[in-house]
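Take the subject:
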Amino acid sequence: MTLPDPIAALPQALTLTDPADRAKALSAALDAIPDLQRFIAAERAAAVTELKQGRTWDQVGEELGLHPARASQIARGVSGGTKKRPTPDS
């Protein structure tokens, strides 16, 4: 896997002297953040899966400072985002 192009180009984008070119490149990087999040999540899942080889989920969780169930979820690609709960007023 490779980084999304606008993210990979970010260090160069930051050095652009033309403000319009820099703004366009930075906008492209911002637009690519969902792709970056998917990339990072997939890479993390692969790392946790690799770490699991020969270990229990308890051991993996301890190694990562996570609950064993959360370590297993990461390996399966389950998002750790929190959901907004409705308030009594809504």
Observations:
- The first helix runs from residue 5 to 8.
- The chain has two domains: 1-31, 43-78.
